[in-house]
Amino acid sequence: MQTPFDVFEELAPAPGRLDELVAPVAAALRDWRGPVPASEVRYVETDPAVADTAAFVERYGAGLLAASATCVIVAAKRGGETTLAACLIPSAARADVNGAVRRHLGARKVSFAPMDTAVGRTGMEYGGITPIGLPADWPLLVDASLLDLERVLIGSGRRVGKLVVPGKVFAQLPGVDVLPGLAG
C-alpha cells in the first residue's frame, strides 16, 4: 500500500542522524522516553528552498498536505506578562489563535511570536520549528486530530530535513495539552 511518504528515497531512524539536527532536537531524541521508541521517529533530507508548506507540497506531492503538521510559536499576553507557547496543527489548517489558543492559555491577547524570538528561544531555524526539542517549560498545544494519524511529517528544527513521526508521539511530548478544535 502506497503512502504519501513513498516520495522520499530514505526515511532513516532519526537517532542515527543526530548530526543533521539542531542541538535541542538532537538532545530530545537522545533523552527520549515514552511508549513510542525514538527509533520510530524518522528523518528525511529535503530541499531547504521549499521548506514552507505550499512550496513543499508542490515539490514533493499534494498527498503530503494531509499528513503534515505545522508548529507555530505564539506569544500570549496577560497582565504585563508574556508567555511563549507552541501550537501544532494540521498544515492545511490555521491555529485558532484568538479563540481556542487564547482561552486555553488564559491570555488577554495572543499573537504569533516575532521570527527572531521564535528562532532565538527555540534554537531552531525559521521554517523548520518542530515540537520535539522545545523548551520543556513551554505549553505545547496539539490539535487532537493529529494523534489519529499513523505518521505525520513535521519540521526537524532546520529548513533542510523533516521528521516523520507516529501521530501518537505528540501526546508524550513535554508540556503537551491535546485540544480538539485547536485548528480553525
UniProtKB/TrEMBL annotation:
| Any GO molecular function | aminoacyl-tRNA deacylase activity
A UniProt-annotated Pfam family: tRNA_edit
Gene3D superfamilies for this protein: YbaK/aminoacyl-tRNA synthetase-associated domain
Which SUPFAM superfamilies does the protein's record reference? Answer: YbaK/ProRS associated domain
According to the entry, every stretch annotated as the YbaK/aminoacyl-tRNA synthetase-associated domain falls at 52-165
This one is known as Prolyl-tRNA editing enzyme YbaK/EbsC (Cys-tRNA(Pro) deacylase)
UniProt organism field: Streptomyces candidus
